[in-house]
Amino acid sequence: MSKQTSHKNIFTKNRLKDVTQMEEVILANYNLAIRYKYVPSNQNPADLMTRGLTAAKFKENFSFWSAGPNWLSGGTVCWPDSTLDCLSADNQQIVRTNLFYTCNESWSQPIVAFDRFSCFNKLLRVVSRVFEFISKARGKELDYKQAAADYLFKTMQQQAFPLELKFLRAPHDKPIPNLVSQLNLFLDKSGVVRSRGRIKKNFTLQYEVLNPVLLGKNHPLTNLIVKDQHERAKHLGVPATLSRIRMSGFWIPQGRQAVKGILKDCFICQKINSIHFPYPKMTDLPKHRVNLIRPFLHTGIDYTGHLWVQNQNLQSKVYILIFTCLEIRAVHLELVEDMTVHTFILAFIRFSNMWGLPSHIYSDNAKSFLAGVSLLNQALTSSEFDEKFGQYNIKHVKIPLHSAWYGGVWERMIKTLKECLYKTVGRSIYSQSELWTAISDVQRAVNNRPLTYVSSNDSGLEVITPNHFLRPDQNPGLLLRMEIQPINEGELPSRQILLESLKNRDELLKEFKRIWNEDYLLSLRERKQDRYPTISNKVRPGDIVTIKLPNKSRPFWALGRVEELFPGDDGMVRSAQIRRGDGSVRTYSLKHLYPLELHAEYEPQEDGPEPSYDDWESIEGISWSETSFEEPTLVQESEQVWICPGCNKPDDGSAMICCDQCDNWFHFRCVGISAAPPDEKDWVCHHCSGDQE
Fold it and tell me: 3-class secondary structure for 392-406?
């Protein structure tokens, strides 16, 4: 019946010819495949006629003749098996194999679809219940779990390895498949394909480990088994998962690539191991940083930490509110008793009375640990502030959350201020008036610092400071010296003398602006560094991301969905608007967004024109201040940083590749490749492969 026997008599050939024609007709008309199994003589209805019986006996067995044996209407697990005691053990194995695997290449559909399950144990439990029901219905004892596992493995192998199974059923006069010879495949007593190794004489390992079950690389059942073993390995990665799979009695061809391809979809590993979106290189400085109109027209504000002051016998906290001019890098310091809205407005009034109202105010977006809300945002949006300054249309621009390097202009000035206070005040506790005097001295010293490089040949007006623009007449090194007659006591200066003084002052300010444009701005160009490589935008609206929270560990980071991107003048995205799980909408830098390789279709609430990226009032959170004159304050990353063994430098955002043996990450440029190899091909470094490039 298996069409493998070459010598048959004429009667057998004719009967087999009739059976073959019947198979073809049934397959053509009903699309049904026929399988052959052994039937005992006492359960074969055809023997009633071929062996002869009386009419009375036929009447008694009429139901058996018309409907067949009872097990025929049940599942295959209840079908009878032959012991074949008359044959040797080797011949019994051959006959059982040929009985189980028919001449048909097709395989019946599984009891349940493998792709409907996300857990291997649940799939095995469901199939075991099916076998248990059928076995109890037919009164047959069976190891339900083992029978279900054998059924799943045989179904998977029939779908994944049809050529190898065909050879193992009838290996005579056929070419040996490569997989059979490489893995030394064989069929066990249950008909499952296993791989025989060279360590079968080991007494410590079990039979299943010495002869593992062969799994298809891309089969759904293999995906479930790999995920199950990955969870049992506590998400340790590819090497640990692959080792546990082999110790559990399974073998996957090209196992490392198969496991790596499956684990990349693990949500927990993505959430914990993913790195943030690549950050673009520094862009051009914004227009308010390179165009000088008047001091403090564009002002950045921030609070420092608390300081202690002595009031009689009590100590109290005070804070310093720092105003930084974004053009000339000048500072104005205000000592405040608390961080309330009323105190901030009083300090802002004093600042405006001295230097004029700014057109734009820039601040961070972080929350205060004292009040739990953004103090600057609360103060600038309060009704009291709007009542006093609403008519002047002062615009407030906020940087992304937890992105201190966006506000590097004023953050760097806070560092300079702290250095001066640490060296002058130290551990001393002053009274409020003494501390105010010390702060005024620090303010003057900071505003007298040079903005450009000071060389040994500089003299005269070649070095400028912020005070040259704020108070040009109070600098002792820049006195207005005029060839005029001395003024007698009690005699007022003439009109001509006053006009000459004003003219000289205007010329002096023009000279300061010329030096500012020629020296200071050019020094910013020379100090520019490309800390990030040229990359393409990988984030898009609708992406599901993990949001880094500086005050929480990584398992407790929030999830969010990208709603809007904020490209810079160069078209590169550095910040995005994120809708968090609690419904709030915030602006975050890409350095705090970690992709999950998930995407949700998102349609904007309303269509409108594209924003103007030169208009600083229309967008919050654009990278506008990261290339400041001084080094910006950077946030220390808490996630793991890969170090390339080739150059001994950390991951800089450029393309990297992982060695499949030692799991070290290398830059493409360090190993001399320009593109990653295919997923099905291993890549090993030269340390692991010897002389391999």
Answer: HCCEEEECCECCHHH
Specify which residues 586 forms β-bridges with.
Answer: 578
Q: 525 in the Ramachandran plot: left (φ > 0), alpha (ψ -120 to 50) or beta? A: alpha
User: Taking 70 as the threshold, does the pLDDT of residue 63 lie above it?
Assistant: yes
Q: Is 626 exposed, middle or buried (0-12, 13-18, 19+ CB in 10 A)?
A: buried
Within 8 A by CB and 6+ apart from 666, the residues are 644, 645, 646, 656, 657, 658, 659, 685
Residue 477 corresponds to which tokens in the numbers above?
A: 């090194």
pLDDT for residue 613: 31
- C-beta of residue 249 within 8 angstroms of C-beta of residue 570: no
3-state secondary structure at position 433: helix
Please state, as a whole number, how many other Cβ atoms lie within 10 Å of the Cβ of residue 264: 12
Q: Give the number of other CB atoms < 10 A from CB of residue 587.
A: 20
pLDDT for 468 equals 79
**Mean pLDDT score, 5-20:** 74
Nearest to 467 by CA among 438, 436, 441, 444: 444
Q: pLDDT higher for 594 or 648?
A: 594
- What is the model's pLDDT at position 364? 78
- 15: which residues sit within 8 A by CB, 6+ positions away? none
Q: What is the pLDDT of residues 380-415, one digit of tens each?
A: 666 766 676 666 678 888 888 777 777 777 788 888
pLDDT band at 481 (very low <50, low <70, confident <90, very high): very low
Answer with the residue of higher pLDDT: 276 or 460: 276
d(C-alpha 324, C-alpha 447), whole Å:
10
- The helix (run of H) or strand (run of E) holding residue 547 is strand 543-547
Does the pLDDT value for residue 358 go beyond 50? yes
Please list the residues that pair with 589 across neighbouring strands.
575
At how many degrees (to 10) do helices 89-100 and 162-169 cross?
140
Look up tokens 């506790």; give the residue.
429
- State the Cα–Cα distance between residues 642 and 665, nearest whole angstrom: 7
Pull the structure tokens for residue 146. 């083992």
CB neighbour list of residue 334: distance below 8 Å, 6 or more residues apart: 320, 321, 322, 323, 347, 350, 351
CA distances from 588 to 224, 264, 311, 423, 619 (A): 36, 25, 42, 36, 13
E runs forming strands in 277-406: 298-303, 307-311, 314-325, 331-336, 360-363, 395-398
HSE, side-chain direction, 13 A CA sphere, residue 251: 19
- Exposed/middle/buried for residue 464 (C-beta within 10 Å: 0-12, 13-18, 19+): buried
Cβ–Cβ < 8 Å for 626, 409: no
Asked if 404 contacts 398 with a C-beta cutoff of 8 angstroms, the reply is no
* Alpha carbons 689 and 541: distance in angstroms, whole number: 43
pLDDT value of residue 438:
86
512-550 per-residue burial string, b: 16 or more CB within 10 A, e: under 16: beebbeeebbeeeeeeeeeebeeeeeebebebebbbbee
Q: Is the per-residue pLDDT at 219 higher than 80?
A: yes
- Give the predicted TM-score (pTM) of the model: 0.54
Between helices 120-138 and 220-232, what is the axis angle to 10°? 110
Residues 6+ apart with CB under 8 A from 43: 69, 71, 80
The pLDDT value recorded for residue 94 is 56
Yes or no: say if 523 and 453 are a contact pair by the CB < 8 Å rule.
Answer: yes
pLDDT confidence band for 236 (50 / 70 / 90): confident
Asked if residue 139 has pLDDT above 80, the reply is no
Which of 305, 303, 322, 334 has the alpha carbon at shortest distance from 435?
334
Cα separation, 274 vs 286, whole angstroms: 32
For the record, the structure tokens of 468 come out as 């040259």
Is a pLDDT exceeding 80 seen at residue 157? Answer: yes
Structure tokens at 413: 């000035």
Contact 410, 296 (CB under 8 A): no
